[in-house]
Design goal:
mainly beta, about 15% helix, Immunoglobulin-like, 2 domains
Length: about 180
């Protein structure tokens, strides 16, 4: 044995797989094991909780008929991109018969969203227009006001927090 291993006041430096370096005096192998255990316990990351989910309940009012279908699209896109909901790879859609529209439930990850709705009365899968004006009903989250065109993002986006959330959409018709 050399001088360092015989000297009980010697300093032992241990670097663990976690990257933690621990230095301290050694007094035999029992202390070394305690040091190693303490370093591993403090280096073990806490288990992350599973990602929270959120429930969004959307109530729809103002449909002028029970013909066709109601198409809904939720997007996380911001600013001017929110109107291109279907182009968002993470968009969420629901299509239901207009006669069954009243309440729609979504389960989503929490975050910022915008909701667009179309009452596709003739069931052709798109919003029909005449001279640039919508011929079918439409709605947006937060019942955003219209200003000579589509609403602004600031008026449409909303936060979905973990737990229960709700939005009420009143369908509007221009023609």
């Amino acid at each position: 044995m050399n001088f360092i291993t015989r000297n009980t006041a010697a300093t032992m430096v241990c670097t663990f797989a976690s990257g933690i370096t621990f230095a301290g005096p050694t007094r035999g192998s029992a202390n070394l094991h305690l040091l190693a255990l303490a370093a591993l316990v403090t280096a073990t990351p806490a288990r992350a909780d599973p990602p929270a989910s959120a429930d969004l309940q959307v109530t729809i009012s103002g449909l002028r008929s029970t013909k066709g279908q109601v198409m809904m699209c939720l997007t996380r896109r911001s600013q001017k991109q929110f109107l291109k909901c279907a182009d968002d790879p993470s968009h969420v859609t629901k299509v239901l018969k207009a006669s069954a529209a009243g309440r729609v439930d979504f389960r989503l990850p929490p975050g910022e969203y915008s909701l667009l709705l179309v009452h596709d009365e003739n069931g052709n899968g798109r919003m029909d227009k005449m001279m640039g004006m919508p011929r079918e009903g439409f709605g947006f989250s937060r019942n955003a006001p219209l200003h000579m065109g589509p609403p602004r993002y600031e008026d449409v986006h909303f936060t979905v927090a973990p737990g229960r959330n709700s939005q009420a959409i009143k369908v509007r018709y221009m023609l």
